[in-house]
Write a structure and sequence with these properties.
The protein has about 120 residues and is of the alpha+beta class. It is built from 2 helices and 4 strands. It has helices spanning about 5-20, 25-50; strands at about 60-70, 75-85, 95-105, 105-115. It has a 4-stranded antiparallel sheet, with helices on one face. Strand 2 (about 75-85) and strand 3 (about 95-105) form a beta hairpin. Helix 1 (about 5-20) runs antiparallel to helix 2 (about 25-50). The longest helix has 23 residues, at about 25-50. The chain is elongated, with a radius of gyration of 18 Å.
Amino acid sequence: GGPATGTLDEAVREVVVRIERGDHAPAERAELHAFVDAVHRSAGTLLTELPSDLFAPAELARSERRAVPLPGGAAGEVRVTFTAERDAATGLMRTATREVVTAIAGDLRRTLETWRLEPLA
């Protein structure tokens, strides 16, 4: 749930409409649907799982890339970048940002999540 997965769901619906409007053979259409479903599950997992070290980041910056195989031998990519700022006294996260960029056939989609940890007054 949430805004990030809502945006992802909207993008997937748009791609499905484009597939249905396209001039594809039945086998190619099935392959495209399977691909979109795989990307949706993969990106959805990246967005819904909080980083395990969110509140006490082990690293201040890290990036991960996952190749996504496309029909016809081409490839897409999902890139996740996490950056954080720690409190010097406690080692706990002050702010953190996760950016997820999905690049498929020249189409880029970007999701940005931010967190802030502040002491109660």
